[in-house]
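Hi R.,

Here's the input for the pyridoxal-5'-phosphate complex you asked about:
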Amino acid sequence: MGSLDGGGWVTHLEGAIDGAKIPAGTLQTLHEGRPIVVRYDLDGIAKAVDRDRVMRRDPTMWRYRELLPVEDNANIVTLGEGMTPILPAPRLGKKHGLDYLYIKDEGQLPTGSFKSRGQSTCISMAKELGCSAVVVPTAGNAGGAMAAYAARAGLEAHVFMPRDTPEVNRREAVLCGATVHLVDGLIDDCGRLAREGADANGWFDVSTLKEPYRLEGKKTMGFEIAEQLGWQLPDVIVYPTGGGTGLVGMWKAFDELEALGWLEDTRRPRLVAVQSEGCAPMVEAFHAGERHARKFENAATIASGLRVPAAVGDFMIMDALRESRGTAVAVEEARIRHWMTEIASLEGITLGPEPAACLGAIEKLAADGWIEADERVLLLGCGNAQKYPHAMPDV
Ligand SMILES: *Cc1c(COP(=O)(O)O)cnc(C)c1O
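And here is the predicted structure with pyridoxal-5'-phosphate in place:
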């Protein structure tokens, strides 16, 4: 039985590929080589707490307390993450023929990206489950975020990243006291080394979707979007897709809100997964009608968070896109810096290359008529431009 304003509402974990029931309360990684998700007593939560109570709490992602996996409030590791603004982008919208374009500015989160949401939950769970060391492979922002939360929790942290990961991402992890291992390869190579380190040393491996809890933090974006829009959802959400945690997480959040009866209007947004043509495995799989993606060879993009050639949750991304009647778009790599400058110079919102790629998708989908002028379109601004000085224009 859960507690009001607290945890204890998790009923079990579940294999995403086959629905198998898996016990909560112990360390879990993958099931059948595929992700594990957290399930809650949603009927119990609906009876214990209502939207209005949630809305009176502090404006952080932990306001959705009953819907997060940590049992004991004392184990919550927080840097005040969450409740990022949804900003209207009228000049940008006008340029692309859209009347209602919005940007959710996740660059305002601790360490400058939405990775802090997932790290807040998984590091809290690492603490609750008694781990003393954690490890993560990263293509960019996850390493710094993990290092920050591990420092906050007093845990030992190991980060595996490609040698050519942007300088800020390398340095921020060292700054927060992590041991940084540079790898000649891509994030999947880092993932293998992280797992070997975890097996050999008993570290908790918090790779994207290879443990159940980062997804829970990322899903709070979905809760916030609903709450901020008066418990209804936009028509289209455009999301820069690497491993897909945010996209899959938002879809899970909408399922949970619907089950709780908290949505005023249960119409769902169409989800758009955006990648660069330099690394577009999900876009290829979506348009080929596949549920699993082929590894993308020679992945290269300035949008480092999208440089993910293979994703263990590929089928979860495909299912969410198709259920939502959404789509997947690969944008021109050479124009990503242009879109970055366009967003910042028209709206003053300084976003990194991953969300900038989303503007490329919006440009295309609006021109094709897939998005109509009067639809409410939300661009997920997952990270801050200042973490990518190499992608910003010089004087
Ligand atoms: C990690 C990251 C992404 C991709 O997120 P996934 O959950 O892996 O799909 C997009 N943008 C930024 C800025 C990121 O750091």
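One thing worth noting: Residues 113, 115, 140-141, 208, 240-246, 305, 352, 354, 382-383 surround pyridoxal-5'-phosphate (CB under 6 Å).

Cheers,
M.
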